[in-house]
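Ticket #4471: complex job returned nothing on first submit. Input attached below:
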Amino acid sequence: MRPFNQFTHPSFRLIDCPICGGEKFKEVITFTPDEFLSRRRKKYYDLSVLGIDFDTPFFIVKCLDCELAFVNPRFRADLYPKVYNEAKIGKYTIDDDGDGLISFSPHRYTTTAAEHARWVLALVDMLPRDDWDQDRSVRLLDFGSGFGYCIETATALGIEAVGVDLDDARITLSRAKGLNVLTPPEYDDSSFDEPFDIIISQAVIEHVDNLHDYLESLTRWARKGSIFFLSGITPRRIKMERKRGWWSKVMPIEHINYTNHKTLDRLMGQHGLKRIKNVVDVRPINGPRDTLAWPLKRYFPPGFGRGGFTAFYRYTS
Ligand SMILES: [Zn+2]
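Support reply: We reran it on our side without changes. The output follows.
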């Protein structure tokens, strides 16, 4: 296989590091959709929309400066909307009876409403209390709101919640539930009366082509003191899945960035965000594994063990 920087294809472009602009990388892995797509995913993707096939190589490299692991070369920017819509033909079935509701999704959602509520309330608890106007509601933005579970819970708790998502099927479902969800262009054109106190973006950063544009969008309607909650995938996950012998989170068609804490702090710091340390995990204890993991979490950084991270930041600008 040729090295990543000698692979040329009309659907791809070679980029500098999207966080630090670095140009020196080390190759982490090269694999093809035939290798990294599960049987289920092979069925729901139409790769021809993206101008590729099951044998097209994908490269993940690691920046020698900031340690970001990312897909490079990656799709041309204009192809990314297609990755989430036209290329994903069989992912959802939309009911034909006219209500626009999704009748089937192969995704399993195990997070309960109670768990969402616990997260949301923990975030509310972190807000600054001095000089808080008691007549004002808490405002929450969920950037990448998916099926709307989080904004639905927040709304039920009396929080003014707005979602942003780019997946047509998920937006349709969220709106059918009466939730306020915008597409990214609608969000860009929106003007809000008040900034947001809590900004959530879960499992989004791994999908984002332009990371600095993404952070600008996230912070555009933040106020000084706003709390940010992000989650994503760490480079460690690549090692874990390679060892395991099958790929799930490491899926370079959609998951194009893998960030550790140091890398994330650097990106966030460039946009006025400072990490909130010593956050106690608010997830409920569900079984023996969590009972054992909880004390360990005091000594190891979040993300330990599962190749994922959760991180809290405060807007200081
Ligand atoms: Zn870099």
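Residues 17, 19-20, 22, 63, 65-66, 68 surround zinc ion (CB under 6 Å). Closing as resolved unless it happens again.
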